[in-house]
Specification:
Layout (H helix, E strand, L loop, with lengths): L2 H4 L9 H26 L2 H21 L4 H17 L4 H26 L8 H18 L5 H20 L5 H21 L8 H23 L9
Helix pairs in contact: 2-3, 2-9, 3-4, 3-9, 4-5, 5-7, 6-7, 7-8, 8-9
């Protein structure tokens, strides 16, 4: 079996799946641009339409590129989180956070498998740095968080920080993606705590989030060797 044939969704002669992947990636970039411009312009309707399209498009692109199933699953659980967080109530927020948490478990499992295939393990020094940042942030924000969200947000933050740290297993793109994911959710947390916000706070949340998921995807696809079994 050739390397090309071993990739799910690929075909011989020119790779038809690759030709489908490029338009899907272009659609993702256009929808992302529309969402960000809509947020800057205060066009809430644009955001409500564009946001739920982002992760399915990115997941579709990843699948067409022969990505590991865990990457596709992580992106789709991110989509679930995106959809629930569009609703402005505590229950939807908790369900959305839970969906994102499952996505982070998918990422962590994928990164763990990456370590098992000869990639350098996540650096302990980097992990210590992330842990320090997390502790300082939680100590500062804890008094300003709603009491019923403190424990769920702390547990989620631990999981997210672990994901951001271990993302470096798949190279610098994924490492930056993990860090941006942490930053994006930290911006959300400061909004919940009613800390002072930068102008157009939703724009910065979405900009860092979109960049995070795109870079995580790029990092995994870049490091994913064609010798792996289909769908790993």
């Amino acid at each position: 079996m050739t390397a090309t044939a071993a990739r799910p969704g690929s075909t011989g002669a020119g790779g038809r799946a690759e030709r489908f992947a490029r338009p899907v990636l272009l659609a993702f970039l256009l929808v992302a641009a529309a969402d960000l411009v809509g947020l800057l312009a205060g066009a809430e309707a644009v955001h409500l339409v564009a946001k739920p399209l982002l992760m399915p498009l990115l997941a579709g692109y990843a699948a067409l590129r022969g990505a590991p199933r865990l990457l596709v699953a992580a992106l789709l659980f991110g989509w679930g989180g995106d959809v629930f967080l569009l609703a402005d109530n505590d229950l939807a927020f908790l369900v959305g956070m839970g969906s994102f948490a499952v996505g982070h478990v998918c990422y962590l499992t994928l990164f763990g498998r990456g370590e098992g295939r000869g990639r350098a393990p996540a650096a302990p020094v980097t992990g210590a740095g992330y842990a320090l940042v997390l502790v300082v942030f939680l100590v500062l924000i804890w008094p300003d968080l709603p009491a019923d969200l403190r424990i769920p947000l702390t547990g989620y933050s631990l999981l997210l920080t672990a994901m951001a740290w271990r993302a470096g297993v798949f190279g610098p793109y994924a490492a930056v993606g993990g860090a941006l994911f942490l930053l994006s959710d930290a911006l959300i947390a400061t909004g919940i705590a009613e800390w002072p916000q930068a102008p157009a706070p939703d724009f910065w949340v979405m900009l860092t989030y979109i960049a995070a998921q795109a870079l995580l995807t790029l990092g995994v696809l870049t490091k994913h060797r064609t010798k792996h079994k289909p769908g790993e």
